[in-house]
Design a protein that fits this description.
The protein has four helices and six strands. The strands form two sheets. A three-stranded parallel sheet has the order 1-3-5. The longest helix is centred in the middle third of the chain and has 9 residues. With 152 residues, the protein is an alpha/beta fold. The protein starts with 57 loop residues before the first helix and ends with a strand.
């Protein structure tokens, strides 16, 4: 081994990428490897999602249908068994409010909440949320609790 055959370890030296946009003397002058004209040669170019080279994009070719009611109210559903889990974990004792549900991650603070009749409720709870299904209300009252609706 001598100075004439020294070389770095395999994989330790990475080849530098193309240096472009540094004028004619760089060997990549003129168009800076972007070709001539067209959107891809311009600065700030980014292909839009769904762009098909100028052809009418699929989302515009396909007809729109249906109806979206702008006045629709979307409720977050919570089953009775989730409330029973809160009681089992000793998080709630007798009253369940919107704040309790938000604190335990079952709803967000601006959500409208509806209690659904899935599962069974053994604990006697005073529940005040926006709405109840008929089966949920019956189950809550059968367990000796109270269902208070915040909406009329």
């Amino acid at each position: 081994m001598n100075l004439s055959n020294l070389k770095p370890a395999k994989g330790s030296v990475q080849k530098a990428g193309k240096t472009i946009g540094r004028g004619q003397g760089s060997g990549k002058g003129g168009t800076a490897t972007r070709g001539h004209k067209g959107a891809k040669s311009r600065s700030g170019y980014s292909k839009k999602i769904g762009f098909e080279g100028g052809q009418m994009p699929l989302q515009r070719r396909v007809p729109k249908f249906g109806f979206t009611n702008i006045n629709r109210k979307e409720y977050t559903g919570i089953n009775l068994d989730k409330l029973q889990e809160l009681v089992d974990k000793k998080v709630v004792k007798d009253a369940v409010t919107l704040d309790t549900l938000v604190a335990n991650g079952l709803a967000h603070k601006n959500d409208l909440v509806k209690i659904l009749g899935g599962g069974e409720l053994k604990a006697s709870l005073k529940i005040s949320v926006h709405k109840f299904t008929a089966s949920a209300k019956a189950a809550i009252e059968a367990a000796g609790g109270e269902a208070i609706s915040l909406e009329g």
